[in-house]
Please model this.
Amino acid sequence: MIEQIPSSIFFVDADFDVAAIALRLDGDYAVSEEEVDRGEEEFLDTFEWGLYWSGLALARRGRRYRLFSADGVVLGEGKGPRRKRPFWWDFPDGPIRDGITAGADIRALCPKLRMSRVRRSFHLLNVDEKTVLRLWLDHVVVGGDNQGPVEQTQLRLAAIRGYEHEYQAVRRLLQAEGLGQLVDGMHFLDPVFAGAGITVESVGSKTVVILERDISMGDGLRQVGLAVLGDIRRNLPGTIEDIDTEFLHDLRISLRRTRSLLTLFCKVFPEIHCNHYRSEFRWITQTTGKVRDSDVYLLKEGEYRSMLPASLHSGLDGFVRGMRAYRSREFRAMKKQLTSPRLARLLKDWQHFLENLPQPAEVAGRDLLCRNFAAKAVRKRFRKILAEGEKLGPDSPDTMLHALRIEAKKLRYLLEFFHSLFPAEDVILLVKHLKKLQNNLGDYNDLSVQQEMLGTFRSPVRVEDPKQVLVIAAALGGLVVRLADRQRQVRGEFDSTFADFSGDESRELVQRITRPAEDDHFSAGEGGRQ
Amino acid sequence: MKTVAIYSSKGGVGKTATAVNLAYAASVSGQRTLLCDMDSQGAASYYFRIKAKKKFNSDKLLDGDIARNIRGTDFSGLDLLPAHFSFRNLDLALNELSKKKRRQALAKLFAPFAEEYDILFLDCPPNLTLLSENIIEAADILVCPVVPTTLSLIALEQLLKLFKKLNADRNKIIAFFSMVERRKSMHLATMDKYSKYPLFLKTFIPYLAEIEKMGILRQPVGATARQSPAARQYEKLWQEVLQRGEPV
Model:
């Protein structure tokens, strides 16, 4: 078992006298100031605060990086990448790279907070001049939230193994003075964020909408639609700036979710013409397709490399070079559309549309509870999946699997949009079962698309050397064979995956989820036309 | 965790200076390091200004009561298990254990720390006893400082004999020349004669005043002046030990 070394943080005044601590302790102690470190520092994190939620903080000054735990302990420091928004793989091997890999995943680490910091380090020495406690006085100044700069001073104590007595004595002393303390579970940057007006958003690429239980159908759809629109707007700047591949990925999810919602709108409000929005959202989704596809291939480079013998790796390198060039070209085209007045107008109009959806009173007979409407939609979609899945045999064409994949996706969206209206545990369990089916269908589809693309890819990079052309062709051929093997395997797993999903447990879950509450004044059967 | 024992049956060859400075070099390079002061004289503990807790002694050590007696040094990533005067009787205490247990006792004692530390250094007392056998059993690498003089070489020879007797892996032994005085022709001649043997590392530690001063300053040479010749030499020695023994 690893011995945990205690540490704590107190909030103190800027002119706090550390040396005075020694005088107030029983025994012969002295405080020595070891060093003063001052400079501008910035804290980096992913768009979704992946490091913060992993209990970490990554600071940078020039090319010197320092990784902290949530309680302010330095876990590693050293030279790191020069780029403005580095990825974990840009760091050299060591504790920083090891520490941030899981939290950062494939996301770029972006500057989140800039502060000027003066850090004074002290040692508490015993009669042998042995260090028995380490102390740091951190004075930080950050740009405030419309109220000018915010200043804060923290005193951090870190015990030294075997000298916990001194740590506790100093801690008691500071507590007796009534100093505020960072409580367990708090991140040491929390007070600084609060002062600077920075809100750390909860993790996840999709905004979670909590609907009131008795919300009307119109209001429910509006709230979900506005939340998904918020996701589109949130991910658009990062996509245009090409910060990391997840912005585009999440943008595309939000666009697909919007299109799925539009289908619901059309059914609920047949008198409203949704066709314009349907075609415009289809246009923008298609615009982003080629760049996302090339991202997927580039992200799979390592996986592809492991599938090929070393003799074909240079061929894969040629393919990757070509794919990068293809992506650059397609990215320029996509960026043009994402920054176009057409998209700006679409989002503005869509927001206006959502905010001005007809009130229930204006649309006769539609004063339905959102819950009943959603329940009926879930039931219908589930039945459709069962029916389509049961039709599938070993020789069914890929188009049928594709259709089933789309249906499964629609059910997933429904469950995500309206999860707050259903029993939480049941929804979580059903989504878990659904995910397994989606993974199988998704893998099958991905493998199919990959084989087709690898077989037909025409690199924009001209390769003069005919030998190199052959090596690239051999590498791609090798990959297609491996992917086809894998696809057969995935197809073979479909029957049992579908059988698991379509079993009694899922059926009972859907029944429970969609069962109307006793106090509802509409039975599910009385829902609006769909 | 790799265990590196600094061992010679001869006294005054620079074992403790080697243990203290190599442990410091290891911790500076980011390895979580524990130095165990096995010598009842407690020189390594003295260098780090650490005293053992009053209730600590050789019986507690052999009972495995180690974790709560480890103390942090002034340097991050470097802890020390201090020596106690009673360690002079470690041999007697080991002898009391059953025949089956007595040779592996030390190795077993430190096994629970495998997760917590990357490197365990053992600063060993100068003798050829049951404790030495324990050290040979526990160590992945046995670093033997050799002053380029006849007596010191005899000590190395004795160590090789002991390895043979115990049927231990001789590749564990890494020797290096310690306290080298280049103005002494005997030192130069001895080094010339023996340094061709693969047992010896290329790096040697010269006799330097700053190493002597560790007794006054009570800290590793690298902590006093990171770029001093002695600090650089120990750093180099550690790198060569790492390379040779591939301990991590």
User: Anything to note?
Assistant: Strands of chain A lie at 7-12, 30-45, 56-61, 64-69, 74-79, 110-125, 131-142, 150-159, 180-181. The first helix of chain A runs from residue 20 to 24.
